[in-house]
From TrEMBL:
Record EC number: 2.4.2.19
Cited function: Involved in the catabolism of quinolinic acid (QA).
Gly residues: bias regions: 264-276
Record field: catalytic activity: nicotinate beta-D-ribonucleotide + CO2 + diphosphate = quinolinate + 5-phospho-alpha-D-ribose 1-diphosphate + 2 H(+)
Enzyme class: transferase
Protein name: nicotinate-nucleotide diphosphorylase (carboxylating)
């Protein structure tokens, strides 16, 4: 049977800033251009009426507010796709910054030079994607900074903009956060309805292990009693949903005490039930104001849907020289 990776391995692997999937980016840009231009190749009735096809322009993409930059690859990808649609040369791009850089207002992201039709038709799409990704990265960085030194890490969720998950989860990584799971396929999360359907927590966990032994399994619990039931059933990754700080601290102390009592190490085979460390994730009611207090309870992770569903975009602009 394939060994199931435990959450620490998953989190540490995801903590590395894995590059943005280029095929996913190409799909996102293609869909965005279809929305803007009407079809492939589509048309921009203003630009193509007022500027000659052979006209060349130079411009600068710059931040208009302090931010953490993410999604810079969208600049070249968008320009290249527009150039291909119009059968024109792709503009030359000189990068002045990199993803992960903290840019001040006025900071230059890139300089562009090439056909005016390509630059102006691509402008809004590349800014939309760059602004969205940078907004997520900037917001995530605030959480990562707030957790600095606590030992806890901030996780994202599946509450992403439809069609933009790859870009937004990449931006979370750039901002210092961790991707818990990309979708329903790579991590099982047992919730109330799954327990009802399966008949019990133990039955749900067992069925997942039989059908998909290669994925980590998490159980959502709302009370210490539910957490104990899940641990007794073999769960080693718990999401503590809207649990009070006092309850989380007491549960974490109980769980860690059990681990020490069985001689369990960071990745050993002891712990409650004798099957390894129990990883605890807090969720619900988390804010930047209370995040360090929650981390002090002893949880390993905290998931924040707002990283992707509520991050404001960053104001970036493209100005012709």
């Amino acid at each position: 049977m394939t060994r199931v990776p435990h959450p620490e391995e998953v989190a540490l692997a995801a903590a590395t800033i894995a590059p943005l999937d280029r095929a996913a980016l190409a799909r996102i840009v293609r869909t965005s251009l279809d929305e803007d231009l009407g079809s492939d190749p589509g048309r921009d009735v203003t630009t193509q009426s007022t500027i000659a096809p052979e006209a060349r322009v130079a411009g600068v993409v710059a931040a208009r507010e302090d931010c953490v930059l993410a999604g810079i690859d969208a600049i070249e990808e968008t320009l290249a796709q527009v150039a291909e649609r119009l059968s024109l040369p792709a503009p030359h791009v000189t990068r002045e910054a990199s993803d992960g850089d903290r840019l001040p207002a006025g900071g230059v992201v890139a300089r562009l030079e090439g056909p005016g039709h390509v630059v102006l038709i691509a402008e809004r799409t590349l800014l939309n994607l760059l602004s969205r990704a940078s907004g997520v990265a900037t917001h995530t960085r605030r959480w990562a900074d707030a957790l600095e030194g606590t030992g806890a890490r901030v996780l994202d969720t599946r509450k992403t903009t439809p069609g933009l998950r790859e870009l937004e989860k990449y931006a979370v990584r750039v901002g210092g956060g961790t991707n818990k799971r990309m979708g329903l396929f790579d991590c099982a999360m047992v919730k109330d309805n799954h327990i009802v359907a399966a008949g019990s927590v133990a039955a749900a966990i067992a069925r997942i292990g039989e059908r998909f032994p290669d994925v980590p399994v998490q159980v959502e619990v709302e009370s210490p009693a539910q957490a104990r039931e899940a641990i007794a059933a073999g769960a080693r990754f718990l999401m503590l949903d809207n649990m009070s700080a006092d309850a989380m601290a007491a549960l974490a102390a109980e769980v860690r005490s059990g681990e020490r009592g069985s001689g369990e190490g960071e990745s050993g085979e002891g712990g409650p039930g004798g099957t390894g460390k129990v990883w605890l994730e807090a969720t619900g009611g988390l804010t930047l104001a209370n995040v360090r207090d929650v981390a002090a309870t002893g949880v390993d992770f905290m998931s924040v849907g707002a990283l992707t569903h509520s991050s404001p975009i960053v104001d970036l602009g493209l100005d012709l020289a």
